[in-house]
Every structure is written in C-alpha cells, then in structure tokens.
Design brief:
alpha/beta, Double Stranded RNA Binding Domain, SHC Adaptor Protein, 4 helices
Length: about 180
Amino acid sequence: MQLSVTARNLEITPALRSYAEEKLTRLGKYLDQIVTVHVILSVNKHRQTVEVTLRVRDLTIRAEEESDDLYSSIDLVVEKLERQILRYKERIMTHGARGAPRGNRASAETAPPEEEPRVVKTKRFAVKPVPLEEAIMQMNLLGHNFYVFRNSATEEVNVLYRRRDGHYGLIEPEA
C-alpha cells in the first residue's frame, strides 16, 4: 500500500504523520487490495479537516471529516472509511462479484428478504442552455443543493452543487 500525506496551511509533524499512517494501515485488515491511500490534512481558522482517498483496484473510496483537533478528525475519518468498506464488502458477499449470489442457496431462501435501494421517482425536464451565473441563481431560488443544466458556454450538461463550506462545485463531463 502506497500512502501519501499532504498538508494545507500547516506543517506535518512526525508524530502526526505516524499517527495517520498507523490508523490508515489498519484498514488493510478489511481490504487487502488497497493500492494507494492519499491523505490531505488542512487547517482553516477553527476547522481542522482530514480528507482520505483510497484506491482499491477499480474502486475509489473517499471520506472527509472535520473537528477541533486533527487527531480526532483522523479517528473520525477512519471510522467512516471502515463503515464504507464494510458496506462495500457486505454488498459483494450478498451479490457476488458479478451479481450471482454466493453461499448456500437454502440459507438464502430462509433468511428474511432485504429490500435493495431502488429508484422510486423519475423526473423529466427540459434542459435549456443557461450561463453558470443563472444556474447558481436558479439553484438558490429553488432551494436545492444541486442543479442540472446545459452550460451555454460549453453546450454540455453540467451539475452544479453546493459544498459544505458554502461555495459551489461544478461537475463537467470529460470529452
């Protein structure tokens, strides 16, 4: 496993680096195919944020947490990653690698059926070309956290979303 630690607005102490490495190498007990782990530690005023991106073969797992202390932020993000990994592994075990159920068929028949998440609503709407500023205004007027629109500058369908820090993010398709 290749582990890299990056800092923003702070200097990484050896103790902080070793603490992050120790906590994140424990994730190897859940997944042995972790290829890379990228950690970003950042400090902005009173917020101390830890972002972690795991690459596992063809899967990317990402988590972000913030608190008053970087050490507790690391603990929180590791807990979140453990939950995500366990959920991923559970899905693989129940559905199999390619959708085929694994294990004994009789035990699967006697177990109570679990309801899978499904699409419960489909919404269709006309997507007219609008500039980015108008899309931001429309999203705010609607009170939504995201807005799908055709960008008049690129003629591509984009997704505008509100970030936790109050700013906006834009998702654009690659050519």
